[in-house]
Amino acid sequence: MGYICDFCGEQPSVVYCQSDAACLCLSCDQSVHSANALSKRHSRTLLCERCNLQPAFVRCAEEGVSLCQNCDLMGHGTSTSNSTHKRQTVNTYSGCPSSAELSSIWSFFSQSPSAVESTCEQELGQMSINENMERTSWCRIENTISQNDTGLAEVNHDHNVDSRSTWGGSSIMQLGSAPQFLDQPAGTTDTLLTKLSCPQTKYPGVCEDDLYDDFNMDEIDLNLEKYEELFGVALNHSELFENGGTDSLFGTKHMSATDSNCQGAMVAEGSSRGPLNAIQPACSNAASIDSKLSSKTDSVLYFTARQDHSSFSFSGFTGESSRGDYQDCGASSMLLMGEPSWCPLSAEGPFPSATRSDAVMRYKEKKKTRKFEKQVRYASRKARADVRKRVKGRFVKAGGAYDYDPLNPTRSC
DNA sequence: GCTTCCGACTGGACCACACGCTTGC
DNA sequence: GGGCAAGCGTGTGGTCCAGTCGGAA
């Protein structure tokens, strides 16, 4: 990744494709992601104009630059003079949007039409932002975040807002909803009450629809090679972060755990001012609900983090750490732009059993049909394997008898 | 409650060979 | 130190199969 498009190697890269982990110019973005239905689903966003390495997280209206979380924090931290800059979250998109469409997504976006118009223009009807219209609205939603006297963030929704937040693959949280303005200094993002919630599921803490798509376990890349460190022993939070677990957890490496067992009912809560809010009861419900939702083998990934006294829990394994350990944690600045949906729960739970069973059905169906994306290291080898003839799934010598030809699946000999 | 059976599910192995990488000159 | 050739090891996808698990009898 870098300043130049990873695909053509000529044009300056403009967008970042999370699925491909590639920086692309608009032209290549369109050509690459118009190749097939799957590639069209790749979620892309602008590239950070400062480091040119990470997907953009916010757009600084004052400076006119798109920034990743790190650069945003560095440039707009409380200690900087730019901390009052008004910033707008950057949407992700999928499909093959035209320049006009991109402009509608990103009001600040302007690009020579010729550079954007593509062969798949006619397919704009299939275009979506954030892949799922249910979770993304085209309308401009102005969520504002401000800090109240207690130092906790308040999120104001103008209207129905899909305010979920997701964990992206490169230490960035994918803000799925429409633009949101961050009026508070970036540095205080650490101090915000931060939660991950999934309003549309009605189930606090259970991102049923997002368990895989948005939580994107394949790409978050929690490196669980050291399983023992994470689960086998009482894990100290600080250990986890100090030995690279921070990156592993929050972004730069892949979560390669047995995906089906990693369901992201996650809560991240942070506050640096005043007494900490106790983890809301709903959080614990997240686990219980999830355990209800997921039958037997499904465990819950339940994470809580507080700045001054972090607790960490993986299905019951918890660890403690002191403040500071998590200062550099990528998640420390994670924001959730949305009304916490960890709504108070009644004794019987927050939802009727019919709704629950319906959700269970949808969850299981989705789990059933889910495909685990595999990271292909060598596209050329994949291309070759894609066209190689096989016998019972095994490659055969060139010219040999075969029973399956990927190029002509109906033909066999 | 215990055992057995059966279906569903999971993960690893297998295959050929182009290509990336290392080594030696 | 750079360039080149040779050789080795890796990775790719569809299918099969052994092992595991859970539910039913």
TrEMBL record:
The keyword Nucleus applies. Residues 356-398 form the CCT domain. It is found in: Nucleus. The keyword Glycosyltransferase does not apply. InterPro entries: CCT_domain, CONSTANS-like_Bbox1, Znf_B-box. Pfam families: CCT, zf-B_box. Its main location: nucleus. Residues 1-47, 43-90 form the B box-type domain. This is Zinc finger protein CONSTANS-LIKE 9-like. It comes from Hibiscus sabdariffa.
